[in-house]
Design goal:
- There is one protein chain.
- This protein is an alpha+beta fold and 454 residues long.
- The protein has helices at residues 28-39, 126-133, 168-194, 241-244, 260-308, 313-322, 327-336, 351-372, 411-420, 426-453, and strands at 8-13, 16-22, 50-52, 56-59, 85-88, 101-104, 117-121, 149-156.
- The protein has an eight-stranded antiparallel sheet, covered by helices on one side.
- The longest helix is centred in the middle third of the chain and has 49 residues, at 260-308.
- Residues 205-211 and 370-379 have low confidence and may be disordered.
């Protein structure tokens, strides 16, 4: 029989919800401590830091003890008999309870009389506790990815007189404000670090005075384009010295050097030969490339025809050389005569079919007297050359004279059906039962009236 409970909380964890019933009558101090810490938001963000497989999970340790420890509350009716029981954790000594609590994963007889039992998990939320107990652990029994208590919601508060030092909502607001201040300080420090410190670059000047950054001015160079300048002597255009310097003219009395002309001619001839050779190589390369491309295209077409099942050009030429129509052409010629016979205006020649039907009708009419009993059909023996001994020859034509005969009347069958089969109507049977009941009541009333008259 379950104990009467007064108090209910809901732990919102990353592994799912865990609903806990509190036994505030049997363990009032433990339940009061748990409710007060939950109202202050002490358990928000706390992890499950210890897991013992098939034994217990432990949480509630955030920064150490939450305050003064309170004494144990050992009740004789409360025992660790099954999983899902919630109890206070201690350091192995008496009256050392603080904020930590444990939830059992199985029967734990060794905890009797040592830990204060103050609640139990209810409903399907026990499976979330079992999920935490099945997590992967390190060497110290700590989950590698520990689940966390996001918040604690108090569904039923058995202690209306508790006044929290700070509520969970106020604590969250303070935490958000603290985080915002930290982010603002980091942003200011980042901006200060990004500004250039000009004091370190001052030599012999006023160290306390701040030096403002002067904008950097880039001077563009003028681009010299002699071919676009009409007046090279114009001061706005900067020309190289090579262009500005004019070639010196030879004196009038000094003859020109003729040795320079043959060298220029030889160089021009060499350049023309090189160009011609280059053009020939280029033309030969392009023609060879074009021939290779055409060859590859022909090979691709041949492979495509082979894949589709068609004959290649060589095979078709060989067949034409042999002469005579192919097998496909012969088959097409067979059906070419009857092509289009089903169209309107064209009548198909069915004289052979009509002749076969007329012959069969004559056979049936000739075999009719034999079937009626006037004449018997005599089977003609097969010639000796047509059938060998021991072979069955299908030459039975008696089916042509067979006639269907039916009896004139079916009175016997009708009588048999009426005698063996009975049609039952439920409505008729109900009416008959009611009529029998009325007759029985009438008979009873008659009998009573006769005894009264006597």
């Amino acid at each position: 029989m379950a104990l009467p409970t007064n108090g209910r909380v809901l732990l919102d964890t990353t592994a799912g919800d865990i609903e806990i019933e509190l036994w505030s009558k049997e363990a009032p101090k433990a339940c009061r401590n748990f409710i007060a810490l939950a109202m202050e938001g002490y358990y928000d963000g706390v992890i499950f830091h210890r897991v013992v497989p098939d034994f217990l999970v432990q949480t509630g340790d955030r920064t150490g003890p939450a305050g003064r420890g309170f004494e144990d509350e050992i009740h004789p009716r409360l025992r660790f008999a099954h999983r899902g029981l919630v109890a206070m954790a201690n350091n192995g000594t008496k009256n050392s309870n603080d904020s930590q609590f444990i939830i059992t994963l199985d029967r734990a007889d060794e905890l009797h009389g040592k830990h204060t039992l103050f609640g139990r998990c209810v409903g399907d939320t026990i499976y979330n506790v079992m999920k935490i107990g099945a997590m992967e652990l390190d060497d110290n029994g700590r989950p590698l990815y520990p689940p966390k208590i996001k918040s604690v919601r108090i569904l039923e508060n058995p202690f209306d007189d508790i006044v929290p030092r700070i509520t969970a909502e106020e604590k969250r607001v303070q935490q958000r404000a603290r985080q915002a201040a930290i982010r603002e300080r980091e942003e200011v420090a980042r901006r200060k670090g990004a500004k250039k410190d000009n004091k370190l670059l001052s030599f012999g000047g006023d160290g306390d005075a701040e030096v403002e950054d002067e904008p950097v001015v880039f001077k563009k160079k003028n681009i010299a384009r002699p071919d676009l300048v009409e007046n090279p002597d114009q001061p706005g255009a900067l020309l190289p010295d090579v262009i500005r310097s004019k070639p010196e003219k030879a004196p009038l009395g000094e003859p020109k050097r003729d040795s320079e002309k043959p060298a220029a001619k030889a160089s021009s001839e060499d350049i023309s030969k090189i160009r011609e050779t280059h053009q020939k190589e280029k033309a030969a390369g392009s023609s060879a490339r074009q021939a290779e491309i055409e060859k590859m295209e022909a090979e691709v077409k041949r492979l495509a025809r082979r894949r589709e099942g068609a004959d290649s050009d060589e095979e078709r030429s060989k067949k034409k050389a042999k002469g005579g129509p192919s097998a496909l052409e012969e088959e097409l010629a067979k059906y070419a005569k009857g092509r289009g016979a089903h169209r309107k205006g064209r009548k198909k020649d069915e004289s052979d079919v009509l002749a076969a039907l007329a012959g069969f009708r004559n056979k049936l009419q000739g075999s009719a007297p034999a079937a009626s009993g006037e004449e018997d059909i005599v089977e003609e023996p097969a010639p000796a050359g047509e059938a060998e001994a021991g072979m069955e020859v299908d030459d039975d034509r008696g089916f042509m004279g067979h006639q269907l005969q039916f009896p004139k009347g079916n009175e016997e069958e009708v009588q048999k059906a009426e005698r063996e089969y009975e049609v039952i109507d439920p409505r008729a049977r109900g009416a008959q039962a009611r009529e029998e009941e009325r007759e029985r009541k009438r008979a009873q009333t008659r009998g009573r009236g006769g005894r009264g008259r006597r």
